Amino acid sequence: MITLPDYAVFLVFLGILILMEMYRRNQKKYEKTIGELKTKLNLLKKELNELEKMKSEMLSRIGVSLKKPLESVRETAIELSRPLDRSPAVKEQLAKLTAEIEEIENFLNLMKELAALENMDLTDKSKFPDGAGSSVVSLDELLFEILNEWNELFISRGVSLAVSVDENVLISGSKYYLKHALDNILSEISRIMIAGSLIHIMLAGGDDTVRLTIVHKGKTQSIVKQSAFGVELARQIISAHSGWLTGDTAAGRYAIELPELNSHKESS
């Protein structure tokens, strides 16, 4: 039987101790690095939250500061356009000025909503800017409610509507803001649709995910005033509901995914 000399056993034992010490030191080094990274991450998160708060406050202050001057200019423009002896050209310019002021006011209100919705997270039971918390929303019922409001415009523009909707598709969120998001998407599509085109809407639940697609098919208007803010607000609303929105504004194609409530599966 071969036995190792005492010094060989000692060397093996010493080698094991050295390896263990190296492992311990490396582990402490990694733990220290991870701790430093966590500290930096927390500081960055705190700084980001402060910046977001500052941005929201700035947007709010801008809106408050400009509200009265804009209202004053708009009222003055309206008053100046009333006298019958005003030339049509002057009245036209004043009307354009009034419309532009309204656009600025809408923009400020929109930016304020975006700032409020940007960091919404329903999982922490936070409330929406309108003061309401989340509730169970039947997305299929909400969709038909919205389409009933838009149907008259579709008919007047000669646009067809094809709808494929699953029943009892339930999600958690704000009915008011979800309606706002879908209205904004349809509003963007209405800018490009022309007679003979088709809007295809599909809503499907299952696998814990709700999928909604809104697709414009057919020719589109070549000259159109686009508004990226409507889609961006819709994206922030969907994001606040732990979902995502993708789309091609020029083509009028949008896809939404949202987490589905388990009650849908239980009821089906």
Quick tags:
Heat Shock Protein 90, 7 strands, alpha+beta, elongated, two-stranded antiparallel ribbon
What's the quick description here?
This protein is of the alpha+beta class and 268 residues long. The protein is built from six helices and seven strands.
Describe this entry's structure for a reader.
The chain has 268 residues and is α+β, with helices and mostly antiparallel strands. The protein folds into two domains: 119 residues; 133 residues, Heat Shock Protein 90 (2-Layer Sandwich), CATH 3.30.565.10. It contains six helices and seven strands. A five-stranded mixed sheet has the order 2-4-5-7-6. The chain has a two-stranded antiparallel ribbon with strand order 1-3. Strand 4 and strand 5 form a beta hairpin. Helix 1 packs antiparallel against helix 2 and helix 2 runs parallel beside helix 5. The longest helix is centred in the N-terminal third of the chain and has 75 residues. It is elongated. The C terminus is likely disordered.
What overall geometry do the principal axes of the alpha carbons give? elongated
Number of helices: 6
Spatial extent as radius of gyration: 30 Å
CATH structural architecture of the largest domain: 2-Layer Sandwich
Roughly how much helix do the residues carry, as a percent range?
55-70%
Q: Could you name the CATH topology of the largest domain?
A: Heat Shock Protein 90
Mean pLDDT: 78
CATH superfamily of the largest domain: Histidine kinase-like ATPase, C-terminal domain
Total count of domains: 2
Tell me the total number of β-strands: 7
Uncertain ranges: 263-268
Which structural class is indicated by helix and strand composition? alpha+beta
Which class of the largest domain in CATH terms?
A: Alpha Beta
Largest sheet: 5 strands, mixed
- Tell me what portion of residues adopts beta-strand conformation: 15-25%
Following the backbone from N to C, one meets helices and strands in this order, namely HHEHEEHEEHEEH
Termini separation comes to: 74 Å
> Strand order, biggest sheet?
2-4-5-7-6
